[in-house]
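To assess whether ligand presence alters the predicted conformation, the chain was also submitted together with zinc ion. Input:
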Amino acid sequence: MTSLAFREHMKGFVDFEWDDYNQALLHGRRAGRRCEFRLAMHVADVDRFVADPEHAARVLGSVTCDELGGDLEVEHGTLNLFVDQQDERHKRMRYRLLLRDPEGRPLTLSGFKVLEDDPNLDVRSDSSQLLTRLLAGHVRDLDAERHAAVVATGILSISRTGFARLLASLRTSGGSRLSRLRALGQFGLLFGRGLRVVYRGAPVVDAQSAFPGLVPGDTSLQGHEPGQWHELPERPGVVRRIVPFAAGDGTALSLHNIRAERREPHRGPVLMIVGTSVRANILYGAPRPSSLVNALVDEGYDVWIENWRASIDFPRRDYTLDQAAVFDHPAAIRRIREETGADTLKAVVHCQGSTSFMMSALAGLVPEVTTVVSNAVSLHVELTPLSKLKLLRMIPPAARVVSGIDPQWAIRAPSTVAAGIAATARVLRRDCDNPVCALSTFMYGVGPDVLWRHENLDAATHEWVGREFGYAPIAFFKGLSQSARAGHLVSSQGFDELPADFTAQPPQTTARFTFLAGSRNVCFLPAGQRKTFEYMDDRQPGRHAYRELPGYSHLDVFFGRRAHEDVFPAIVDALAR
Ligand SMILES: [Zn+2]
């Protein structure tokens, strides 16, 4: 029997408030809250280690974190080298260290590295970053971890020289010299084969987002059971359930259903659809006393927010507005009708949730919707000359090097190209001290106040958006460029359900639309919404309305410091029409 040993030293930062890995890294780094470990890995029997699909090694050593009392001794530790997730091309390395602090209190470090061939990533960054949580007590498995109290969250990494030292530390013992050599070879082969299976061939299309859960698929349930009502600590008085549903092409999506805690809704369902790069939480998660969702619940509405295929709660994927219009929104409405028994419903739609919903409506795919409030952009796409130029000129070259852009790269860039894009945004948007906000702003336009006027946000909300912006694929920007060039929505995929030109046939909807536009929106100009109102008013006179929101830009409409006075009543009024 031949055994094998090696050493690993990883270091990074942790935070005690943020439970998102990237935010914890950002805030831990800002505050200088360091955390590191020096571990000795021991494989007792290399043959068994290679044959066992769990590939488990024993771990000894210590974790050092000043805020947690200094040196924390590893009492019992395991490393699982390559563990298949849903299939062999999605793997994780898992670390579980049962620790004790100098005062005798038990703690657990649980961490994982995500190994997947995302087109924007490289192998080294995958295998060098450990997404880490420190938990209270000794937490022995993933099941127990779901209910454990999180003490700190962060990311540790290993440098290139650290990795070279790891390799240099590899030692074998026991058996003949030949069997020791063979053991080393087997270990190297296991490592090489693991990486080859993950990274050879075409990249996977469903890589984790920048927000991986404890196990793949976890993120979209946000720690809850599907369909189960639960309280939201940040929103007292309302309850939420996350209802999974399948889009028309089978894509797994979800709805956030929010109601008053002690009152049945009496006004029927409202479907809310958010934009790209975000998730349902963007409409109610801001650290503000109220939200549009609360305002609608208070009015007696049953609120349903759609996480369509662009939601950052799902794995990264390519998508187009055509797919959302044909597959996502009609399926969401079917699911809401099944759940509520309602025949009709109302809708509040924003940005690309609005453009894609407009496509569904104009094509006659959502006849159940009677009243629609649309914010920012719908049928006509009007951009500032500079952002149009940027969109048309920068997307084709960008498409050659990345499959999409992720604002989270500003915290954790997975490749040199990603780091370059993040650095460009940082230089151009020096006015903003939130790196994710700066890169999001850079992604979606030109100038400092593309997504919100900074003066409309309080400091806590500006910090909060850092967790709420994520990946958007180049495929989406390409579709948007086509529409921007045409001046109005065009379908890009040739689905039978959609007309090639949405202005070439009468609108196949009888819904009453209110078109809202922030007067200072430079992401999509208010002129586009006004044009769509005029277009619809021409064809269905007196049915529709247009309303400008003075002093607002794009998303501050939903979480600006005065939105509860300036905007929410306008939306409530529009829904009552
Ligand atoms: Zn900012």
